[in-house]
Amino acid sequence: MTPQVDSNTPSAVLDRVSLVLDAFDGPGRLTLAQIVRRTGLPRSSAHRMLDRLVQLRWLRRQGRDYELGMRLLELGSLAVHQDRLHRAALPLLHELHRVTGYAVHLAILDRTDVVYLEKIGGRLAAAIPTRVGGRQPAHCTAVGKAMLGFADDAQLTEVDAALSTRKTKYSISTPAQLRTELAKVRAHGIAYEREESLPGFACVAAPIGSIGEAVAAVSVCGPATQMGRDHRLAAPVRMTALGIWRSVEGGPVRVQPTLQQHRPLVGGPTAGRLVPPARGALQTA
User: Is the entire prediction scored with pTM above 0.90?
Assistant: First the structure.
């Protein structure tokens, strides 16, 4: 006979805390009743736990509503900024935004979703409803496709089961469509997304990692009418991905994203500020 686990053991308490915090995985505040429904915890237990989490500043209470507290925000911010990948990427992400004028994302893959580690882009970024720590279905995004191009069969099978989740009418919806896109990613080292996650916006992304693998991805995003399928964006995005990975590995060469041609991006938001190199698309220092 399997012995029952005391609900007051540390592991059981941690499981309950995790249930409560996971209930806030989404926008907006929650009431006690909503938390009870999402977690399945008894109302009295949930209420005691919420009171304690408020005291610890893990949650914040406003009237009858609860939301994530400042302590979690502080710890989450520390986790991001302590991350080696994020530290290596940050200056290059800012440079990519400066060169292209578009919003820039850094993301990792978590099963069938992408999770955003950074977002840069000023007023344009504010128009794109992504956030640091937020998620999107991987198959609907350029960063997701950039990483899925180097995923194993087991992971792709899991993604196939999630294809029913569509963000727009242009989202990939069949395994055949996905495999075709991923073959292009492996062939060219670049991924495109046009209004597949958000109407009116397009993205270009490149994988970050050693040859044949992707531990993360970087992208530029902007209005689809401005970006179109301008393949000149591929070079600065790829150079940024390469530079980030070299920085992560401690390599001596710093790669800077630059545009290949002297003519501006079609309709690009910073066309007048682009300063391409005299030769090629790669500068090292």
Answer: no
